[in-house]
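Margin note from the TA: students keep mixing up input and output lines. Inputs are the sequences; the output is the structure of the whole complex. Example:
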Amino acid sequence: MEQRVFSTIGKVTRRKEGIARVTGKEVFSSDVTLPGMLFARVLRSPYPHAKVLSVDTEEAEKMGAICVTPDEVPQIRYNERQVSIPSKTYRDRTVLPEVVRHVGEGVVGVAARTEALAEEAVRRVKVEWERLPAVFDPFEAMKEGAPAVHEDVMLGDVRLPIKNNIACVREVSEGDIEEGFSIADFIVEEEFRTGRAYHTQLETKAVVCRPEPDGGITVWPTAQSIHNTRQLLGRIFDIPLSKVNVVRVPIGGAFGSSIQMNTAVAVCAALALKAKRPVKLCLTREEDMYDHCKYPSIIRLKYGIKKDGTITAGEMQTVVDIGAHNIQAYPLLGCMAGWFVSLYRMPHMHFHGTAVYTNKAPACAMQGYGNPQVSFAVESMMDILAEKVGMDPVDLRLKNYVGLGETFWGQGPTVRSIIRSCGVEEMLSKGKEKIGWDKRGKPEEKRGRYRRGIGVGRSFHTSGTGAPMPGEVIDYSTAMVKVNEDGSVDYLTALMCHGGGTLEAGAKIVAEVMGVPLDKVGISPSDTRSTGYDVCTHATRGVYCGGAAIKKAAESAKKILLEFASRLLEVNPDALQIRPDEELGQGVIFLEGAKDKAITVGEVAKTAQLKGWGTAIAVESHRQVNCPPCFVTNFIEVEVDTETGNVRPTRAVAAVDAGTVINPDLAAGQLEGGLCRGIGLALLEDTDYDRDTGELTCGASLVDYKTYTAVDMPFVDDLEAFFANTYEPSGPFGAKGVGEAANNCTAGTVANAVYNAIGIRFKEAPITPEKVLKALKENGAAKRRAERND
Amino acid sequence: MATYKLELKLNGEKLSAQVLAHENLLSVMRNKLGAKEVKNGCNKGDCGACAVLLDGKAVNACLTLALQANGKEVTTVKGIGTEDQPHPLQESFVRHGAIQCGFCTPGMIVSSKALLDTIPNPDRRQIREGISGNLCRCTGYNKIVEAIEDAALKRKS
């Protein structure tokens, strides 16, 4: 039977990285300093689309600067994201391009003794440009005769011509959609849009590269996957992987923006290899804002529903404006189909997704990978459908949600597994109670300048991208655990912690398996040379997938340890157990019921060393064969100011079904943070581009982009987070993920709350004061017209 | 270009550096005085990651000319407390899960210290205002506000 009572799992403990972070000792990529290091800057395109006719670096080089130009770097086309299998990977990037496709795309790398000198050198580089026509709207881009952002790209190793700027298309069908609509009592169709938010991770992308005397390179990047960074650098620069060492460095926030190898890494590597000296490249905030953003969405959604609230069919058509590069649009479209299918049961479904190139900053994953977009549309639609059939929105969700025993698509059509744990009902019923759902009233009953409304929304995210069969996505982790001679334990993985506590959870898993106190478990520094492959800390897979590999390695190390102990205690190893002993400050191996058969972990390890038996050490690679959904449910109350159009969330109840919760305080922190980023997507965040210059209209500044400060952030004082009481049989000690789930349903929930407050349905996020005022005005005029006609 | 001698006290230690007239304190702290705990999040006063105390007052180092600190005392998060003797705020940030990625943390603790030095018992509204110049993308601020509130209470008792 699975263990359900824990010594360390689920306890609130003092976070290991905590003290370094509060005392200023943590070293991020931008803090890495090496002897003789040069500083790099990048000359970037001022144009949204242009050909580089010539580059003259003479004046810069006269200053002593090292320059790399497009014709000096390998022109191999790559995709910076190495998570999909090669045949499904679209490659359209080079280290430095001969054609720039968005404002801010780097063209020449320059390194000098100081950052100021490097900036001066960049000013001395002359580039001759030929401006090309640019396109900013995805529908314009698909028209015949529109400027071509890419003539062709590589799909795997095959050249693929690009027509009408369509980067890729994905179509998924199950059942017979026409049949599904024909048996419906009502058919409802709407269009929804979400914005092009910017990750706003506090640390801009940064990297330090050091060329090694053997022709290799050591790299300290901002990265969610050190192994994929290593493989890509090896391929681009033709260096054997044994000579490319990528070091895991704490990351100042990512939210998906470092799943791919960041553009700075390849430029910096090229400079370091040429200079034969270490080089550091840190993006400015402005450069960073031109480097990545969230996938925006335009979603046309059509549902068929019976009078009793049974959904008979669903159809989703989406157009995604991916910007200038196809970082991961194909898997994104598959995932969007998967999120759609897995939210509510549909016997008949059809999905059609199109990803379109435009001359804007390239979009990539940002917390939820298409899920906040899909959930905004679907959760808004559930409320529309509920009203149509006269059902309570919560009841409609309970009737149709995909739950226990049903199939969940964790990462598109090829990554499916059966749901084995589900807290949806618990979260909906408890959440209803806590927020006061039944007293929320109807919009038409609400009066006055400030009107409050309560909305519900639910969603999930996958826990990793594992499945019984290998799909289009690579997913496994490797971990090493070793017992030291004083009874402490080291664990080593290439997993990354983005701040949420993934590595802390790994330490707790080790402590739990090994029966040692948590403070005796050390998180080893990690790099690609010393660790086995780990795909990436993305897709909410850190604890569920990475943690499972750690658990497996700990179990193997424990087996060796107990075998050593059995020789000393003369007890069969299968009869031995380990428990943490707080007094001794380490684990004690014992035979239940026999007082004289007990020995500390340290004594066993030390004796094994002295007698030459060896070290209790194990390495395991592990792939999860499931991708359980971590369900999430939001109830949010908003207050709409009908004079200013401002929407202010006032209360929230956020629940997540993460299975066994390993770090309760840190998981709650992720839930709160995710909710708040979701609020940003719902009400505030978007980027727009000037149609002439191709520049960001926010001027690439954080203040004009607008994110919440502590003063504006809703709910700081009235937010209740709780966990569903579930146990995931396939997870390490019953755990699933949390990370991305936390923000997936927030925008939809807010839209539903706004509707409940003022009776107006907003189908485009962010729901800004301008949009609210305009809608109130139109609604008022419409009402007056209706009254006149009565 | 002409350089000028900057003399200041950094976390109690007398230091000097040759700086340009237009160089900001952030650049000098990170590149000439080795104070990497002062983080560069935007270099234009938007994010607060580079907050330091200048003679006890919180400023964004990126908006302060290095020479404005001449003859003054600069305190970074390292001067507020150490791993052996953490300040109650630092202790509280760890205990309350107020740190996620940790990049905003040095600036956040500096601003919180400046707040508690001026208002020893702030209410939640005052705490939110006190850290409103510091962006945090990970936490949603809730746990940070709790940590500061608790540190203030602990200091009082």
